[in-house]
Amino acid sequence: MTDLNKLPQQAPEYDLRELLEAGMHFGHASAKWHPKMKEFIYTEKDGMHIFDLAKTAAQLTKAYNYLFDLGKNGKKVIFVGTKRQIRESVRETAEQAGAFFIAQRWMGGLLTNWDQISKSVRRMNEIDEGLEAGKFDGYTKFERVQLEKEQGRLARFFEGVKGLKGTPDCLVVIDPKREKIAVAEAQKVGVPIVALIDSNTDPDQIMLPIPGNDDAVSSILLVLKQLTEAYLQGKKATKKPANN
């Protein structure tokens, strides 16, 4: 297991005002909190918990350094965020960083039954390649329509992992309470989890929790952009020529 405290410092210095403006300080209603999130909570106001943004910044810094290290070492990362309002952002930021993603729905068994899931991924790739190469040009119109429908169904769930070969090295999860199936599978197979986690969720199931508002789009985008940028910069660092 990577010692997060010993990773080289790569993260920018986070301005707490930037986190505040993104709404990261807002937790859930205090009546719905998870007691194990107490260490990250600064106060309660109007029935809502308020996060200690200094601690949020510290966790985000660790996460940035970790994702940089994963990218630098060629590790495979899946970004998971299926809330309707962030799907396109998850897709765009992950693609820009050359990372995998799940933005529509986590298919049960993606980690725990990869042998079966990989058959669907291969089928999707075969159809994609066949359509591009004109392999199916001789099909009837009906057959083509059915093939394209199948391709659409498969792409909905597996487009973001079409190049995945086996178990990833890390999941980055937005709202682990919502993505509980992904979290449970990752725990079962020993895949580390980095997550933007709100005050209503158990942090013990997450290797590296980033306490913050996991409902506000502005808060989610801030975390997504930072962590995908970290992964991308790590990948770029491996391509720098050595000094002679």
Lateral arrangement of strands in the main beta sheet: 5-4-6-7-8
CATH superfamily of the largest domain: Glucose-6-phosphate isomerase like protein, domain 1
* Share in helix: 40-55%
* Fold-level CATH name of the largest domain: Rossmann fold
Largest sheet: 5 strands, parallel
Percentage beta strand? 5-15%
Taking the alpha carbons of the first and last residues, their distance comes to 33 Å
By secondary-structure content and strand pairing, the structural class works out as alpha/beta
What is the alpha-carbon Rg in Å?
A: 20 Å
Helix count equals: 7
Low-confidence stretches: none
- How many domains comprise the coordinates? 2
| Level-1 CATH class name of the largest domain | Alpha Beta
Question: Which descriptor suits the 3D outline?
Answer: globular
The mean pLDDT is 93
The CATH architecture of the largest domain comes to 3-Layer(aba) Sandwich
